[in-house]
Structure formats: C-alpha cells, structure tokens
Amino acid sequence: MSKVSKGVVRRLRLSSLGCHLFALLMILQLIEPLSLPQQTLWSAKDPQRINFSLIELQSPQASGRYRPWSRPLRFLIQGGVHGNEASTPKAVRWLARRYREGTSSLRSLDSFGIAIDFLPEANPGGLAGNQRLNPKGVNLNRNFPVMWGVTQENPGVHPFSEPETQGIEALVRERQYLAAVDIHGYVPWLVGPSYPQEIQAVHRNIKAREPQWHSPLTKNHGESPLFVHSKVRNHKLWIESLRQEMAFLPDYELHTAASLGDGGSFEDWAFWQMGVFAFCLEMAEPLVQDSLERLTTDLPNDLGITPQDEVRLIAYEKLIAKMFMHAIFLNKSSPIVGSTKN
User: Fold this and answer.
1) Is 2 exposed, middle or buried (0-12, 13-18, 19+ CB in 10 A)?
2) Residue 300's closest CA among 37, 86, 78?
C-alpha cells in the first residue's frame, strides 16, 4: 500500500473514531441522571431582604460538560405568594419532584440546556399565619412597580417596600430568567402581562398626579424605541401563545392584571421591566388534601397528592412546559432577555 493510501486509511479510521466518540457522548448525554436537587437558602445579600429556600434543578445538557460555552437557559416556577393558598407550594414541590424523577413534561426542554428554580414559598410569613398578605399586611402581588397603587388592597408604601418582593427582585436580576410562572389559586384563569395600551392609560392617570413617574414602555428606562417595539411585538405573541395553550384547560379564561383592576403584579413587572416571559397560572381548585402545615423538606416522598389532584397537576405541568417552549422560540426570534436586568 502506498503512503498516500495509508494516509487516507488513517484519516478514515480517525474520522470513524470521531463519529463513534460523538455517538457515545450523545448516549451519555441522554442517560446521565439529573443533578440532585440543591436545597439552597438563597440570600439576597442584604439583611433587610428575606432569604428564600430554592430547589435548583438542571438538565445534564446544561452542565459545563455539554455547554462549556454558555450558561443554561433558566426558568422560575414560583408559588405561595399568597399565604392562604396552601396548595400552590405543594404544586411547586410536586413539579420539582416530577422533574427530578424524569417523569415531567418539562423534561422535553432538556435538550436546550435548561435550569429551573422552584420557589415554593414566596411568602413564608403569610403561609405560616394562613393569611393572604405578608406579616405587615401587604399584598405582595400588588407591590411590584408596573401600575403600582392601582388596587383595592394594601400595595405597600412604595414598590418593593417589602422584604419578600425585594428578595424576588434580587433573585430575578441575579438569575436572569428566560420565563417564569407564578402559581396562585383558586379560579380557572391564566393572567398574562397587561396590554401596552392598558398600561399607558393607567400611567397617564398616574403621571397627571405624579409628573416624575415614568411608564415602563418609554425610553426613560434606557431602552431604544426598537427595543420597546420588540417587547410590544413579543407581548402580542406571548398572549397569543397563552390563548392557544389555554384551550387544553377546560373552562379557563385569559385575563391581564390591568383588566382585573390589579396593578403591581409580578407578571407585569417581570415581562415589561425585566424582559422575562411571565404569566400567572391560577389553579382552578385547591388540592383535595390542602394542608397549611409547612413541609420540613423540599422534596418529600409523600405530598398527599391524590389521583384526582394528579390529573389536574399534570395538565398544569404540560401547560407550563409548552409556555416555556414558546418562550425559548420567541427569544430566538426576538431576544429580550438580559437587556434590562442590569
């Protein structure tokens, strides 16, 4: 065999070896188990802010082994903002356990290299006291900046006046989520970010009283007109996606915080000021075993979920997975994440 022929054979062998190694890497990527959940006491690095217990899970594809060039796409699933909605922390823990065990619809997102933060108790003081409000009597879901003060409930003395919302703000800024769902109860609704015209109308009224007030849809937040246009476009597509996926939840209605007369909501702030594809999922009914007893571990084996509960929770899980998938593709076509978080 000539030297040229030997060189060709050697290159073919090396090429074949590379293909086999690549195939082996793909197999390992598929069979490698998820990292164990981290029960993290996340600190906002400020003693005046509350510390949250997070359950952090990420797909194997999100690790440095497979994505050394980039960080994972991160999502937030939050519950317990209203302390008397005791089913919502259980639902968040159930979703986390399913994801860890590999039975969750959210695992369909693994190939994108994702990480999910599960925050079961966003209002631990309210949950401990079985009360909707936080221990200071403030509705935390009225304490965010967009349309703050438009409510019949106590929104706090100013936006982010509460340690819980300060902690959520710090968490969202640090983690730079692509999408987030805030789970509440109990009415068959999805609540999306308010329409631009709704926000503008509210803020015109506010600005008449407070001239220094700025709308989140203007350049006053350091955003270019093109960027604002991108957010408005993504809002339309996000609302359309919510309406499309909501069809699989019987008797559900789509609302916005503005249409309900509720300013200062999490989803409006997260979407319009932080660039997070956010929405509120209202559980239609409480879980059958709706206990207010706080759980001692983040992922206990027995959450008291009945078969009847599980049917409904699986439907919610599928909805969340589909909406997170929409967020991934919307961000690819018109990225807004990370542009307003600094």
Assistant:
1) exposed
2) 37
